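Database export, one record per block. Field names are fixed; values are copied verbatim from the stored entry.
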Amino acid sequence: MEKLSLTVTKRESKTPNLVRREGNVPATLYGPGAEPESLQFSAYDFSRLPAEAFSHVIDLKMEGGKPVAALIRHVQRKSTSDLVQNVEFYRVSTDKKLTVTVPTKHVGHSQAVVLGGQLQENTSSIDIECLPGDIPDFIEVDLTMLQNVEDSIHFSDLKVSGSVKILNPMDGIVIKAVATKSGGGDAKKEEKK
């Protein structure tokens, strides 16, 4: 994936509402090794970032300075309109491991579904630890492992590179093939007749 970046500037001495009215978003950059900084950036530029930006390192490009590697830690949105109100960035070191959450991606087809089962997804994201440069876009969940109804895929079954450590309990279930409820209901109707 190409490097993600966002142009930011020092926050002007205006109220947050005025910053927003001018098409910008107020933000805070914090983390080890430096004092917290108040920033602002274009709301339009932020809206154009891909979904991966929320789990990958972003280069914050500041005028007259070196880019700062950061993660988006929190996005505050207006409840009535979903407009971004404020963003918190966390400064990271590219040589120190960090904890992030990445989405899952289903690949393959389950034989259990062909046999009449239904997929029950317990989670759509995985907690991992790795260096900032090793964060994957997603972690694949191979549905071909679900051969029969009641088969499960556990966190321990997921394949990740050696530089990525899964932090979820290894015996936890990611997805399971379960019997459909309609089958049991038909049986009960037959008993009543």
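Remark 1: Residues 183 and 189 are 10 Å apart (CA to CA).
Remark 2: The chain has two domains: 4-91, 98-180.
End of record.
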